[in-house]
Amino acid sequence: MGSSKYKMEFTKHRLDNGLSIIVNSDYSSPMVAMNILYDIGARDEDPTLTGFAHLFEHLMFGGSANIPDYDSPLQLAGGDNNAFTNNDYTDYHLTIPYQNLETGFWLESDRMNELAFSQESLDVQKKVVIEEYRQRYLNQPYGDAWLLLKPLAYKVHPYLWPTIGKEIRHIEEARLSDVKNFFYSHYAPNNAILSLSGSIQPDEAFKMAEKWFGPIPSRVIKPRNLKPEPEQTGFRFQQVERPVPSPAVYLAWHMGDRFSREYYILDLLSDILSNGMSARLFLRLVKDRKLFSDIDAYITGDRDPGLFVICGRIANGVTAEAGMQAIREEISRILDEPIEERELNKVKNRAESQFLFSNLNVQNKALNLSYFEWLGDAAMIGREMELIRSVTIAEIKETAAKIFRDSNCSCLVYAKNEEN
Question: Which CATH fold topology does 11-212 show?
């Protein structure tokens, strides 16, 4: 299970209906964190009905068959909750005092079993999501970046649309029958992972799970049939004019999936380039050359092959072409000049600090247990840092040479619309 320094103790159990349960006992807090991960994300949507995974994140708080209001009983029990959706899965989590934990089981099991489907509830949540779509993606500077960049980089795989959906019309036209079909095809005990961390013994948690989740029937899950993205063979470019404060450039290169060695290598390289005030892109392109007002590099971290992204807002008086050329020069430095061991160790140490710190919190531990079990085995938590620590300078150079090719790159440029 990996080095004892990184290992997290847990106990696993599976109910007859297929629900996976993982428990980490942590008595440093009187609270218990409960996390439920459903193996349903934006990549599982029908291309003509996108945004449904995110819509369901909202619908799950709109009342279930026996509980009209999710939040009130949880708050009365001293609990707190939240949720998020991404390309690959949907996650619901709550924290609650140990003595009131059964309230959490009651709430989560009831909405897993059946939502209070109604046209009224659907209309309310559609309005919320549509407003979010407009405010976050259409009505703020650079908000539509992923609506533009994803279909530029992807042509076949469903990562070509963002979690919010391909277009607002799909949510506007969502029917109650579509919503019900989506729920019963994806929300089920045999498509979920329940994890707990906090002041609770595994046997007690398993008994509560059997009591509240055991009666929920397993369901037929819609088969996943994802088309792999073909290798990109040419540079892709799109420029749009928008009323933005300054021009901006987004560069995206295809990379390996979450299980590949590339994932760890490029995660560290993104930190070398942009994590902190001493990172390469900030020092050279923002502080020294003043070509960008801000710049970032990151990996999307998707389960299937994802993207390595560099994006930045260009300083006044600098052209997009000059900005892109400066980024290319920094990439060339990675290939031509070896990264120093000190530089690599610095980002490894930072990654380890973040890893260890994240696992002090029961909510983060519950989420990590669900996430790594979803990846294949919760015990992978104990091996993550070992994989990161094992990355070499030679691997970074070799991988950079492999992915940073123009033929593997998609470029989005925001030009400033001076008329607005």
Answer: Cytochrome Bc1 Complex; Chain A, domain 1 (3.30.830)
